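for the writeup, i need someone to sanity check this before i put it in the appendix. the sequnce is what the collaborator sent (i think, or maybe the updated version? ugh). structure was predicted straight from it, no edits. if anything looks off just tell me and ill rerun, i have time this weekend
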Amino acid sequence: QVQLVESGGGLVEAGGSLRLSCTASGRTFSAYTMGWFRQAPGKEREFVVAHRWSGTTDYADSVKGRFTISRVNANNTVYLQMNSLKPEDTAVYYCAAGAIATVAPGSYTYWGQGTQVTVSS
């Protein structure tokens, strides 16, 4: 069992930055693909970025060049640095973990409770 706890959300003006954190319980953190998803009101949950245990990453086109994922296995923590934020980035951001995970939400086994990010124009 893995428990995920996100933090770092908040309100920021367009063009600003935020850093989200996700800390996992358990001793096998390094073996999981860690992903970030987001869900805006009335929309489906969408993939943002994934960091595989191998070190490779995938980014959604909408965030490439603006968002950066990183992880510190020793601290069981994955980070999402978000720069040049836009109003359309407003959503609840979720951290997720999966053993064999892709861009599909269904491929992740564990989810955090989510943290709200609001970008004002």
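The CA atoms of residues 69 and 120 lie 23 Å apart. The mean pLDDT is 95.
thx in advance!!
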